[in-house]
Design goal:
alpha+beta; four-stranded mixed sheet; 4 strands; 21% strand; globular
Length: 162
């Protein structure tokens, strides 16, 4: 049975002494319990770079990130999908498949009316994330290079252990 969640608020914040910009995303579980998801503000650039997704499709990236807390992002052997898949396209397909499975089988996610949500001047709760995405966009290529390097290291390690 799918669980009913409502996205209630999205708030920018700063985490720790390093002052890392984060988003606090609050979901109401339907029984009054709040599920809080903390993510870096550059999460959209990170996911676009990691899975070689369309960087300009911010609404698709937002959709993925909002459902991400409800998926299993690991392979059966405990390796993250991103690094355990044979190729980047295979990793992307698995990731998207798990997001779609969560939508179909695990969770129904509604967006609270803006009158209930704590937002700045926006009329759409998701505008807070859209605006934040534009600030993070320039990091995409650096992140893509980091992911490629990490994937190469994992593949070398796997090859040398065989």
């Amino acid at each position: 049975m799918r669980k009913q969640y409502t996205l209630k608020s999205i708030e920018p914040a700063v985490h720790g002494s390093a002052k890392i910009p984060i988003w606090r995303v609050a979901y109401d579980r339907g029984d009054g319990t709040v599920h809080l998801h903390i993510m870096p503000q550059d999460i959209f650039a990170i996911r676009a770079a990691e899975y070689d997704m369309d960087v300009d499709d911010v609404d698709a990236l937002i959709d993925l990130v909002l459902y991400e807390p409800f998926i299993d992002s690991m392979e059966e052997d405990g390796t993250p999908i991103l690094f355990g898949s044979g190729s980047l396209s295979e990793a992307r397909e698995k990731y998207l498949s798990r997001i779609n499975q969560a939508k179909e089988e695990t969770i129904t996610l509604d967006i609270a009316p803006t009158s209930e949500a704590r937002t700045s001047k926006s009329t759409d709760l998701l505008d807070v994330l859209r605006e934040g995405y534009r600030k993070a966009h320039p990091r995409r290529e650096a992140i893509r290079a980091e992911v490629a390097s990490a994937r190469a290291q994992v593949q070398r390690a796997e090859s040398s252990s065989k």
